[in-house]
């Protein structure tokens, strides 16, 4: 199975002008009207923008530019002790994947027409540099347990997903140049459905 191992991140100013690319930080490059997820239990608190993934980079059959925007309920910064454990669950509304254009938003995700909002980095955007390689299910766990796009998810617990969902991104969130509080020693698994018009986030914490 084709995968794209993330080797490192290249930083640019958040006002560099590059749009519709795979990156973390900054503000979303909305293709359609803004659909910013908010947390209803926290008084419509906007989820923090983690980044956007240009699906065309990894799914070559897509003809129109298609972005997956990644959001999660997060503290304001490293000094903020706020943490919502519901980010660990894919259907509690505390994390979200928004697909544009023509994406479908599940009923547990609530959105508002916010063009900008909280982000993991206001000053820089972080573009992942990747290496394309192949994975097979028989590979050692440590070879699958890497930061990557696509490929085979390296679950260390009892997590399982329906076969029509495919791994979009796997990140060890404690080892990033931008700040994500995902728990003690978490891995973020981001999945797409087979129609590529929706998805969900699953967090595992050792």
Describe the 3D structure.
Strand 3 (36-39) and strand 4 form a beta hairpin. The chain has one helix and 13 strands. The strands form three sheets. A six-stranded antiparallel beta sheet has the order 9-1-10-11-12-13, with no helix packed on it. It has a four-stranded antiparallel beta sheet with strand order 2-5-6-7, with no helix packed on it. The protein has one domain (2-205): YwqG-like (Hypothetical protein YwqG fold, Roll). The chain starts with a strand and ends with a strand. Helices cover 2% and strands 38% of the residues. With 206 residues, the protein is mainly β.
Give a short overview.
The chain is mostly beta strands and 206 residues long. The protein has one helix at 141-144; strands at residues 2-13, 23-24, 36-39, 45-46, 48-54, 67-72, 95-100, 110-112, 124-134, 148-150, 165-172, 186-193, 199-205. The mean pLDDT is 94.
Q: In the CATH scheme, what's the topology name?
A: Hypothetical protein YwqG fold
As for the number of domains, it is 1
| Through-space gap between termini | 26 Å
Superfamily (CATH H level) name: YwqG-like
* % residues in beta strands: 35-45%
How would you state the average pLDDT, rounded?
A: 94
Quickly give the structural class.
mainly beta
Order of helices and strands: EEEEEEEEEHEEEE
The top-level CATH class is Mainly Beta
Q: What is the CATH architecture assignment?
A: Roll
Helix fraction by DSSP (H/I, runs of at least 4) = under 10%
Number of strands: 13
Summarize the biggest pleated sheet.
Answer: 6 strands, antiparallel
Instruction: Indicate the low-confidence ranges by residue numbers.
Output: none
Shape: globular
Radius of gyration: 16 Å
- Largest beta sheet: strand ordering: 9-1-10-11-12-13
Number of helices: 1
């Amino acid at each position: 199975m084709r995968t794209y191992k993330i080797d490192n991140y290249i930083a640019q100013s958040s006002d560099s002008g590059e749009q519709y690319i795979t990156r973390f930080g900054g503000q979303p490059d909305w293709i359609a009207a803004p659909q910013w997820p908010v947390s209803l239990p926290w008084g419509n608190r906007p989820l923090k923008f983690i980044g956007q993934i240009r699906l065309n980079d990894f799914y070559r059959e897509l003809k129109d530019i298609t972005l997956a925007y990644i959001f999660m309920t997060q503290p304001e910064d490293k000094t903020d002790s706020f943490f919502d454990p519901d980010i660990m669950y894919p259907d509690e509304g505390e994390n979200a994947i928004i697909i544009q254009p023509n994406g479908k938003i599940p009923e547990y995700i609530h959105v508002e027409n916010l063009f900008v909002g909280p982000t993991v980095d206001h000053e820089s955007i972080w573009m992942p540099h990747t290496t394309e390689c192949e994975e097979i299910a028989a590979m050692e766990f440590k070879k699958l347990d890497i930061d990557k796009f696509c490929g085979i998810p390296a679950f260390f617990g009892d997590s399982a997903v329906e076969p029509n969902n495919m791994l979009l991104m796997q990140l060890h969130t404690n080892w990033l140049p931008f700040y994500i509080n995902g728990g003690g020693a978490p891995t973020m698994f981001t999945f797409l459905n087979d129609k590529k018009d929706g998805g969900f986030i699953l967090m595992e914490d050792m």
